[in-house]
Amino acid sequence: MVKTAKRLEKVELSQVRKMFEITDENAINLGIGEPDFDIPENVKIAIIESLEEGFTHYTSNKGFLELREEISKKLKQDNSLAIDPESIMVTVGASEALYICAQGLFEKGDEILIPDPGFMSYIESIRLSEAIPVPVQVKFENGYKMKVEDVQEKISPKTKAIILNSPSNPTGAVMEKKDIKAIAELATDYDFTIISDEIYEKIIYGKKHYSPAEFSDNVVVVNGFSKTYAMTGLRIAYLAGQNELIEELLKVHQYNTACASSISQAGAYEALKGPQKTVNSMVNEFQKRRDLIAKRLDEIGLECSQLDGAFYAFPKVENSQDFVQKALKAGVVTVPGTGFGQYSENNIRMSYATSYKEIEEAMNRLETIKL
Question: Are 124 and 203 part of one and the same domain?
Answer without folding.
Answer: yes
